[in-house]
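Hello again,

I reread your note about wanting to compare the complex against the isolated chains. To keep things tidy I'm splitting this into two emails, and this first one only covers the full assembly. Below are the input lines as submitted, including protein chains and any nucleic acid or small-molecule components. They are followed by the predicted structure of everything together. The single-chain runs will come separately.
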Amino acid sequence: MVLKMNGYRLDKTLETHIEAEGLKEEVHGRHPMDDLLRTDRLPHIWCPGCGLGTALTCFLSALRKSDLDLDRVAVVSGIGCTGRVAGYVRLDSFHTTHGRAIPFATGLKLANPELKVVVFSGDGDLVTIGGNHFIHAARRNMDVTVICVNNFNYGMTGGQAGATTPIGGITTTSPYGNYEYPFNVSALAAASGAVYVARWTVLHARRLERSMIEALLKPGFSLVEVISPCPTGFGRRHRQREGLDTLRYYHEHGSIRHGADLNETDIGLGGALVEGKFVDVDKPTFLEQRTRRLDQALSR
Amino acid sequence: MSRANRDGVLSGEFFMQGDIACAEGAICAGCRFFGGYPITPATEVAQRMSERLPLVDGVYIQMEDELASMNAVLGAAWAGAKAMTATSGPGFSLMMENLGLGIMMETPCVLVNVQRGGPSTGLPTLVGQGDMMQAQWGSHGDYAIIALAPSSPQELFDLTIHAFNLSEIYRTPVLVMTDAEVGHMTEKVVIPPPGEIDVVSRRKPTVSPEEYQPYRVAPGEWVAPMAVAGDGYRIHTTGLTHDERGYPATADDQAQWPLVQRLIDKIEKNRQDIIMLEEDSLDDAEVVVVSYGIAARTAKWPIQMARDEGIRVGLLRLVTVWPFPEERIRDLARQVGAIVVPEINMGQIVREVERCAAGQAKVSLVPHPGGGIHDPQKVLEAIRQAAGHGVEE
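Full-complex prediction:
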């Protein structure tokens, strides 16, 4: 039955019918993560073959294993496909404007330091339009965990080029191949002062989850870059018609190198996809620095 | 500062700059978060906050730009803080998108604009009132806004407190539209003891998290009680058009109508409670000067000169500029022959006055492009002209 096909959107009237008849659970079944999801918002909007489902599952699983008080976890997203994550998690969650999730998260954290604040957004949102906030939050060692799902293009608007699109990448706004040098998201975070930086493809789900746990528990600015298929916007223009083709690509090109020299982790079309935990250092956070300085200056 | 009491209120009489009075007003109102970016002539607000907030367990953070400042303020408000930023023209422009986010998410906070001459970088150190229309129309889409226009450091202090109260009552960003003249003016400012300052705080939900919906408004009310991050309510909010649960509802206009209508109505239908006016000598007036902020203050002298000449002229000072006091202007237009509008721009609020006067009274603008206050003679001449006593041109 079509309804059971994972990832496909249900026909609207059918959806209403299913909800009204209380059939949703019967049709979809219970998922172990359901209590962390706003199930009344499902099915999600993501395309078949998209990696966001895996990224979100890893995140929810990491949250559970991290033992954080879930009433004190806030998730902030910007705009885009990944930006929809905030709308699906059953946590305090904020879907903000394009590029501005990090400063919103900064306000949340500083006004209530008891919160664990997670920014979950895409590459276009976080390092293209929001690049300034990304580097400054890392510079401050602001106590937020940033999960950046990088699919090398703007998916929601129909597959345009962005600051992460590899040289030669074909998108709807680089029809002759991208000729701009891209950002290396992990290297950018590390260079800006992040204390924890890891990169995994969604194929490496267990390692991804492990890094998410570490990032969640790491005081200061932590980044997990999640390399993720976008068959609709990017993959199909690069001989990866299905999400599975991209996963196969990850399997063939993935190269796990913990502590790699970040100068050697740039992502190019057809080249090695270096993954691993790149940075894990200890440095006082913004709040620790602030407390220390004020205590000293105000002799309290 | 040693005189600040436990609430952080610096009670007493001071010779105080407007921008500093603004910061002190914010602290009196309970503001404990300031996210800002330095910009003349609003910098002193940030400087004062950076010094004062750590003394009252508040947080000052200098953000990387005004986009970040506005968002940090919204984030802080959603973590339960009373939060503020202060800026001027270029920064105000950068804040517009996220002012809209604040309105859409119904976020209480205060945005102070110490206006300077524009457009663009314009006159960084000199006065302007050229952002008055931007205040109401600068962010995209339809909304209503509350904007207050102080005309002295004392009033900047008082209205900053009031702006916080209004923002908490109506769950919306409130604008304090001051200017370089008032912001940089040093004058007597009286800060009352904390017990004499009215401070309002947002309503919190009393129902269980299971029952709570962040945008379900009870009958007879205009806004929902506000749960914030960490309260255990697991709220969701978005800049997208949303339903009562805060969930996106973007397939059609079904949620759009009630949402946008309520965002406007919660301010428009409460205009009588929100609007504050100062009126002087209007009973027998044949001419009325309608103005706001520093322009209204400087108009007082030419009004007195005109009175001395026997012209029956009065003053209507708009303490609240938005929502616009339509009813009062309409009534006055029926009573007086002419309305004179001095403002430090090339004609903004005068358009609203013309709209409300609807041809019942002659409306004339006394413009100024910014960079100084009005020459009193020009305002006097406009009053004479309006009264039919002027030299025909």
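For quick reference: The radius of gyration of chain A is 19 Å.

B.
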